[in-house]
Amino acid sequence: MGESPELLQQGRGLVPVRRQRPAPQGLREMLKARLLRSCSCSVPCAWALVQDLLPATRWLCQYRPREYLAGDIMSGLVIGIILVPQAIAYSLLAGLQPIYSLYTSFFANLIYFLMGTSRHVSVGIFSLLCLMVGQVVDRELQLAGFDPSQDGLWPRANSSILNGSAATPDCGRDCYAIRVATALTLMTGLYQVLMGVLRLGFVSAYLSQPLLDGFAMGASVTILTSQLKHLLGVRIPRHQGLGMVVRTWLSLLLSAGQANVCDVVTSAVCLAVLLAAKELSDRYRRHLRVPLPTELLVIVVATLVSHFGQLHKHFGSSVAGDIPTGFMAPQVPEPRLMQRVALDAVALALVGAAFSISLAEMFGRSHGYSVRANQELLAVGCCNVLPAFLHCFATSAALAKSLVKTATGCRTQLSSVVSSAVVLLVLLALAPLFHDLQRSVLACVIVVSLRGALRKVWDLPRLWRMSPADALVWAGTAATCVLVSTETGLLAGIILSLLSLAGRTQRPHAALLARIGDSAFYEDATEFEGLVPEPGVRVFRFAGPLYYANKDFFLRSLYSLTGLDAGRMAARRKEQGSEVGVGEGGPAQGKDLGPVSSRAALVPVAAGFHTVVIDCAPLLFLDAAGVTTLRDLRRDYGALGISLLLACCSPPVRDILSRGGFLGEGLEDTAEEEQLFLSVHDAVQTAGARHRELEATDACL
Asked: Which tens digit of pLDDT belongs to each residue from 93-133?
């Protein structure tokens, strides 16, 4: 590449001159420079670090009260009104008392207000995380000797599996349940903070949207199943482990005759009202400035009816019970419990991080601002770490509340402070008013909130038509969640997504290209009509990377489409020791090649080409095995008198070819300009010119 630009313009047109790259910095120098940058301290650097960790310090200075305040207050009030009934209801999923859900909603909103980068995401209790927390709590309660299906404060009298300090006289069932939940929450938050510190925000990108949708669908079916006992007012054991959903349905069928008539009637009425209100809200959404607070109205009316009708006393209907006011003293989660739930916290950390980052990026794109995935991990992680000492459980961003927040005019996270103020009012004064609220009503609120996730099942046919691989990931994740467990479903979804990705790169589309009329463009001859094949040249496109897992498929596709197995024919030539050149002129005359040699010489004649051009535009990357494959392919084609040319190589691919020894080696030590071309048409024209020149030379000889 040392020639002048004038010389490079001769021959086959313009050829770009590569820039001289600066000498690469050594590892020691690079680490030293980064260490100096990170350790340098000044007032601007310290303030920038504070603004990065607490983004509220940046945007609060630019807050415009006249434009933003009204919308933030309105959306904050609406979200706060929605949070109160949902917090009380979701406590059933987590197996905890309602007061802890209110604590969680209060602290999570305040912390995300300070640390979040999204302006519209609502962080708080999330049904999927509540389900996963509840499953861990139930398991630990059983191991500690408590009955998760009972509401008593003491372990079973005949239990013989009490282990040390797991259950003590000063800690009853509810006390031990929140200890398990806070230990799980702290471990979840620590994982998320660690991911943020290590800049692992990209990891959530590997949880694809079909995986998340399938997981939401399967978990929603699990949540629906867990709430049926409250809808019917029956007592059944809370199953754990494999086949939990199936075993719960069997228990419900066996106990259907013991259903509480009062709870069944209440559930039917509440479901009818809530579903009808949701449908009306969706239909007349454009005409409603704020969504109808149907859940709150239903809970208020149901509480009044239960209180004055004495439904718990007369019909044995289960009620929420005492909900204390005020805040409890902070408590450090037990290290022993943290060790027990460390593995369970991994799934919660991944699910919470994936949903939070995806929602933040979705709202950021739709409203024209950027979010930082690593800071979102830190924010959500701190929403779990700090409240874990204040009797809270795992939280993340929630789609439904975030959509409501956006629809009601939210402009900044100041609306989260308003929502926390509403929850604080309930915590300090209004919580005892919900004492007589029936649990069946809370179950109705949970079931209706699953409507959006359950409707995603109708998207499966469309997803199958668009991408069968994504549809299989969706269906496999959902089915595993329902039939096995939610944690296994998440693991199965990740494995299926990775297999889908590997399958797409392992067997990408391969085709022969032909010329579009008299233009300089080439396309797939099997997809378009009227294309003109170039005589004596085969243009091959491989729409994927070339690496160790698909190199054999690459060769099979090339040999199949061109009709010539160059590797096998070159090996036969080597075995026969034949020096006969292969071209379009046919085998040499007057020599007895034997049956094998004659057949080997006749195959290229039937193929009818002298050059193979590989369109490298879709070639994303090469590894060592890919470079070796191209080198061996060029050698085999060269043994048969066929040239191999590459076109449209990106600079990274060129560098890999150069470092791998593909360029600058061969029989004639050809230079880079003789093997790599800027376009397919350039390569085809050069191949034709070379062949005509070779034929003219042969004729003269």
From this structure: 888 888 999 999 999 999 999 999 999 899 988 888 998 89
What is the structure's pLDDT at 418?
A: 92
- For 435, phi then psi, to 5°, come to -60, -45
Element (H, E) at 610: strand 609-615
Question: What is the domain count for the chain?
Answer: 2
Give dist(CA 697, CA 219) in Å, integer: 74
Alpha carbon 23 to its chain centroid, in Å, reads: 38
Distance of alpha carbon 385 from alpha carbon 189, whole angstroms: 5
Q: Domain check: are 128 and 230 in the same one?
A: yes
Are 441 and 525 in the same domain? no
CATH of the domain at 556: 3.30.750.24
Task: Give the angle subtended at the CA of 439 by the CAs of 437 and 444, to the nearest 5°.
Answer: 105
Burial of 491 (0-12, 13-18, 19+ CB in 10 A): middle
Domain hosting residue 630, numbered range = 510-566+606-699
> How many Å apart are CA 384 and CA 388, to the nearest integer?
6
Host H or E run for residue 244: helix 244-254
Q: CB of 174 within 8 A of CB of 322?
A: no
What is the distance between the alpha carbons of residues 489 and 495, in angstroms, rounded to a whole number?
Answer: 10
Q: Report the alpha-carbon distance of residue 421 to residue 424 in Å, rounded.
A: 5
Q: DSSP secondary structure string, 182-229?
A: HHHHHHHHHHHHHHHHTT-GGGGGGS-HHHHHHHHHHHHHHHHHHHHH
Contact 679, 645 (CB under 8 A): no
Question: Which amino acid belongs to residue 308?
Answer: F
Taking the mean position of all CA atoms in its chain, how far away is CA 561? 37
H helix or E strand, kind and range, residue 615: strand 609-615
DSSP letters for 643-700: EEEEES--HHHHHHHHHTT-TT-SSS---GGGTEESSHHHHHHHHHHHHHHHHHHHHH
Q: b vs e for 518-554, b when ≥16 Cβ sit within 10 Å of the residue's Cβ?
A: eeeebeebeeeeebeebebbbbbbbebbbbeebbebb
Whether the per-residue pLDDT at 377 is higher than 90: the answer is yes
Name which residue leads in pLDDT, 45 or 389. 389
- Considering the domain architecture, whether residues 191 and 274 belong to the same structural domain is answered as yes
The larger pLDDT score, comparing residue 479 to residue 319, is at 479
Residues near 137 by beta carbon (within 8 Å), at least 6 away in sequence: 94, 95, 96, 148, 177, 180, 181, 184
| Model confidence band, residue 314 (pLDDT cutoffs 50, 70, 90) | confident
pLDDT at 193 over 90: yes
pTM confidence score = 0.76
